[in-house]
Amino acid sequence: MARVALIQEDAHPELADLVAGLRGGRAGRLLNIYKLLLHSPPLASSWFGHVNAVRWQTELDGQTREIAIIRVGILNEVEYVVKAHAGAYALEEGLTAEQCDALADWQGSSLFDGRQRAVLALTDAMTRDIQVADEVFEALKTHFNERQIVELVVLIGTYNMHTRVLAALEIDSEPAPAKS
Questions:
Q1: Tens-digit pLDDT profile for the chain (180 aa)?
Q2: 22/92 same-domain check
Q3: Domain end position, chosen among 17, 39, 56
Q4: d(CA 180, CA 176)
């Protein structure tokens, strides 16, 4: 259970426009992270804009994006992110269930190519060590242009922030969407 009460939108009509925007960007759902962030409407709004930009407004392909996000979730032990991304988003981007499972021990797996391994090495370095060794960074240059490297670094940094907020506030994973 979350350490801070989740905002119930019907109790806060003054947030209706912001809630409508949040729902519109999440297939009609108001996710728990936003129910919590609505305690501070400016943070909820800026968080939503930033996360949307790093996920949908970059040159990064979906598989690259999802392996980095899931790996950050695994390293920071945040089920909310792992469950959401390995459970649906990664599969939609063409990753296999086996690859998602292998992300916990990617170095011992043959399921990842050189490009994906470079992403995973960067993700591990940024998440575990903060500092990125030159050889890890150099490996990226054979697969990504400078814009993509910046976008990848910001994505990983964003999801480190995201997972740390989720963990500190103990935000519950989302329930499965209702089947129609």
A1: 899 999 999 999 999 999 999 998 888 899 999 999 999 999 999 999 999 999 999 999 999 999 999 999 999 999 999 998 998 899 999 999 999 999 999 999 999 999 999 999 999 999 999 999 999 999 999 999 999 999 999 999 999 999 999 999 999 888 755 544
A2: no
A3: 56
A4: 12
Asked if 85 and 46 sit in the same domain, the reply is no
CA gap 25, 34 in Å, rounded: 12
Closest CA to 44 of 54, 56, 30: 30
User: 108 and 30, same structural domain?
Assistant: no
Same-domain status, 114 and 46: no
CATH (domain of 89): 1.20.1290.10
Cα–chain center distance at 10: 28
Domain count for the chain, please give it. 2
Q: What is the pTM of this model?
A: 0.93
